[in-house]
Design goal:
- By secondary structure, this protein is of the alpha+beta class.
- The protein has one domain: tt1808, chain A, CATH 3.90.1570.
- β10 and β11 form a beta hairpin.
- The N and C termini lie far apart (41 Å).
């Protein structure tokens, strides 16, 4: 299956959904990207702690948090050629959630950097999420123990950087902060 996939070919969600080679892929503007191999223990620890903090806060609220692998189809419909699998995603509009994942733009996306994903997360996905209007995009860097919180305003991200001693306000969720000492312990 993987041998048939080519970078110079345009794919859509129907193609993506039919791939059964056991590998994880992302599709951005019709171009395929192979996902990194299994994440490190540090990556998994960070994602687990974030998921717990979000999950506990969101209990009984309309928003839901999901952890990868979870398909986010940013432009479902006619074109339907962009599918990403963020590490964590928060969705508040239940009509965007189906059995396959998210159909449309989520309210928040979190990516945790790994050595093989730095460029992809900081450049490709940054531009992608900004273009599609993801209101809040965080990049978590385990190496520097920091979080870049990108908040969308008038179609552009503005960025705040937080370190392992800070609490990060979640702009899309009123009165909620993530405790970074717990995340990076």
């Amino acid at each position: 299956m993987a041998e048939a996939l080519r970078k110079d070919q345009h794919y859509n969600y129907a193609d993506y959904y039919s791939w059964d080679d056991g590998k994880r892929w992302e599709l951005i503007d019709g171009v395929i990207y192979a996902m990194s191999p299994a994440p490190t223990m540090t990556h998994q620890s960070i994602i687990g702690t974030l998921f717990l903090q979000f999950g506990n806060y969101l209990k009984g609220k309309p928003c839901k948090v999901f952890v990868a692998p979870f398909d986010v189809r940013l432009n479902p419909g006619e074109k339907d050629d962009t599918v990403v699998q963020p590490d964590l995603v928060v969705i508040c509009d239940k009509s965007k959630i189906d059995d396959r994942g998210c159909k449309g733009v989520p309210d928040m996306v979190i990516e945790i950097l790994s050595p093989s994903s730095i460029r992809h997360d900081r450049l490709v996905k940054f531009q992608l999420y900004q273009r599609f209007g993801v209101p809040e995009y965080w990049i978590v860097d385990p190496e520097t123990k920091s979080v870049q919180a990108h908040i969308l305003s008038e179609g552009r991200y503005y960025t705040n950087v937080y370190t392992d001693t800070d609490e990060v306000p979640v702009h899309m969720l009123e009165n909620f902060k993530i405790n970074l000492p717990d995340v990076f312990e």
